Amino acid sequence: MGLITISQSIGSMGMVIAHSVGETLNLNIYDDEKLKEEALRLGLHTQELNNLTEKAPGFFSRYFSKRPEIYRDILETVIYEISRKNQGIVIGHGSQFLLRDFSCALHVLIHAPMEQRVHRIMEQQSLDQNTAEILVEKSDNAQKGFFQYAFNMQWDDPTLYDLVINPGKLGPDAAVKLIVEAASPENMNTCSLSALEAMGRLGLIKKIEVALQKNGHNISILQIDADPEGIVNIGGYAPNAIARADILQTIKGVEGVAAVESTIGDISQLPEG
Predict the structure, then answer these.
(1) What is the b/e burial string over 59-81, where b = at least 16 CB atoms within 10 angstroms of the residue's CB?
(2) Domain extent at residue 35
(3) Which residues sit opposite 88 in a β-bridge?
């Protein structure tokens, strides 16, 4: 088993557990920094990468406050690209939601009781109890806000997870053993070729959407699809011939696009209502 998502609440030892699982299974850990590295490799702009964090919307920069939908598209682009490799542990960032329909991914939630989390933060950061409680509460609210804003769901919804672990009761070593056992080939489905191709196709579509939005195009009136060979079909409407030409040129410049087939019409043809 090579594809795991691990979501955590602050002070629950999630990163410690994730790294132990990664060492045991020889899997890369995709945390904030690794996600940014992957996004850079995909050609996404540094300004956008600075906002690739799991916080709620006051969290967007001035750039994203104008077009916050790009934020989700960037996350989807990176996570689908990582998942296509079928090797790695993705930490948070909505990965449990974005990959919920892929039966070959194991989704884990690590969440300890509030009292234990506060105590752990007090020890780690040398804080008094009141300050630690405020920090934990602020982090929880930001995490909830991000997930609600980006995906319109609660991040701790148990239906998003295959395994929910309280390390405050079991301890980190037992948590690692549980995840490693659950991720074994005997217990998990293997990613089929069609599932991996679907991840690659979705990742390419999201890269195209990010590129189009960065160039000021309204993707809500476009229909974008792609096949496993990188042939992109683009339909919908454009304001004029200049915009239509720029849309096609932008798509052709996206890494992974082999060819573009267009049926884009003039916006005057858009049905009313």
Answers:
(1) bbeebbeeebebbbbbbbbbbbb
(2) 3-182
(3) 3
Residue 154 sits in the same domain as residue 225: no
Among 115, 103, 53, 74, which Cα is nearest to 214's?
74
Rounded CA separation 212/206 (Å): 10
Regarding whether 53 and 172 lie in a shared domain, the answer is yes
Mean pLDDT across 43-72: 52
**Encoded amino acid at 136, one letter:** V
What are the tens digits of pLDDT across the range 153-166?
888 899 999 999 99
Q: How far is CA 103 from CA 107, 131, 166, 204, in A?
A: 10, 41, 23, 21
Report DSSP state, residue 240.
S
Alpha helices of 42-128 — where are they, by DSSP H? Answer: 46-49, 62-66, 69-84, 95-98, 114-125
Q: Residues 92, 164: one domain? A: yes
